[in-house]
């Protein structure tokens, strides 16, 4: 694999002056179709009890893009890849991305290759029409050890190569720990970005999750322009559970979502804007995602 681009990005001088030397992404994105969708975890209980009916309700709301959070035994919500693709097509929907955790159990160190289970994951993602295969988690045992973390980032890159053979890219979705933990004196998310090749690996920035790690989206968009092909659009309020903040209807929280999504279009290289709401403050999940979509449309998405 060609590593020159990643090594270039890692240089501190580039990171400090990235905005001035990289081209504007606004012109590039104007030639692409901006996609607004919903992460199906937002209606997770409904998808368990009535996946077909739930998808139909989303389509009636105006959603044309979804992102899965359920892939088990080579099935999406109980359907084979072709069955699920046919359901999506019948509803006028596409699924450009989905969440499936890539773990150490998916890498055969002795054979220096991915397991059949992970190869099937990539194959099935391609069948259903994904652009991105996104892993939404990083095991603590991996990121607590600097050398093991860097070794696993190479597996991320190799997975990007594997995905590229099917016309896709691999991606990583953040939570909160990436921002409030340091490894070898460096913020974990810096290490993830600096050691993954942007030609093969995208970042899906969740700017709601990162607030629970004490971070905000703007500095990261500015430090690593063009690296965030997909984002989770999420607003946050003071939390009532284990975390300082919880998600809410877009525009009703403290994130400043509208300004951030516009910045993602201009600077982040973002094409996929995926709504996710996990807490509802007395509303139903369906009511919440319907309101979220209306607000995104009001903002020009």
Task: Walk me through what this model shows.
The chain is an alpha/beta fold. It has one domain: Divalent-metal-dependent TIM barrel enzymes (TIM Barrel). It has 15 helices and 16 strands. It has an 8-stranded parallel barrel with strand order 1-2-5-8-9-12-13-16, surrounded by 5 helices. A hairpin with a 2-residue loop joins strand 3 and strand 4. Helix 7 packs parallel to helix 8 and helix 13 packs parallel to helix 14.
Task: Describe the SSE topology.
Blueprint: H1 4-10, H2 12-16, H3 18-21, H4 25-29, E1 35-39, H5 44-49, H6 51-61, E2 65-68, E3 71-72, E4 75-76, H7 81-90, E5 94-99, E6 107-108, E7 113-114, H8 116-128, E8 132-135, H9 140-143, H10 146-164, E9 169-173, H11 177-180, E10 182-183, E11 186-187, H12 188-194, E12 201-206, H13 217-223, E13 230-233, E14 235-238, E15 245-248, H14 257-268, E16 272-275, H15 285-298
Parallel strand pairs: 1-2, 1-16, 2-5, 5-8, 8-9, 9-12, 12-13, 13-16
Antiparallel strand pairs: 3-4, 6-7, 10-11, 14-15
Helix pairs in contact: 7-8, 13-14
């Amino acid at each position: 694999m060609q590593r020159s681009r990643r090594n270039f990005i890692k240089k501190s001088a580039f990171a400090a002056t990235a905005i001035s030397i990289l081209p504007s992404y606004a012109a590039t994105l104007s030639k692409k179709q901006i996609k607004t969708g919903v992460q199906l975890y937002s209606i997770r209980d409904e998808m368990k009890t009535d996946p077909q009916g739930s998808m139909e309700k989303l389509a009636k709301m105006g959603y044309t893009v979804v992102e899965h959070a359920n892939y088990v035994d080579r099935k999406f919500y109980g359907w084979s890849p072709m069955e699920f693709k046919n359901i999506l097509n019948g509803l006028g929907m596409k699924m450009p991305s989905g969440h499936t955790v890539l773990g150490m159990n998916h890498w055969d160190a002795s054979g220096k290759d991915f397991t059949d289970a992970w190869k099937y994951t990539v194959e099935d993602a391609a069948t259903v029409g994904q652009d991105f295969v996104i892993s939404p988690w990083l095991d603590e045992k991996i990121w607590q050890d600097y050398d093991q973390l860097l070794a696993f980032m190479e597996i991320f890159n190799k997975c990007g190569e594997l995905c590229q053979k099917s016309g896709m890219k691999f991606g990583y979705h953040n939570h909160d720990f990436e921002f409030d933990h340091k490894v070898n004196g460096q913020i974990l998310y810096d290490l993830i970005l600096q050691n993954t090749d942007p030609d093969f690996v995208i970042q899906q920035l969740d700017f709601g999750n990162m607030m629970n790690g004490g971070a905000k989206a703007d500095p990261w968009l500015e430090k690593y322009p063009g690296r965030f092909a997909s984002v989770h659009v999420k607003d946050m309020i003071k939390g009532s559970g284990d975390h300082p903040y919880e998600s809410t209807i877009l525009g009703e929280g403290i994130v400043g979502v509208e300004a951030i999504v516009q910045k993602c279009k201009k600077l982040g290289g973002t094409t996929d804007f995926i709504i996710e709401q996990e807490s509802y403050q007395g509303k139903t999940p369906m009511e919440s995602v319907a309101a979220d979509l209306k607000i995104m449309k009001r903002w020009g998405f």
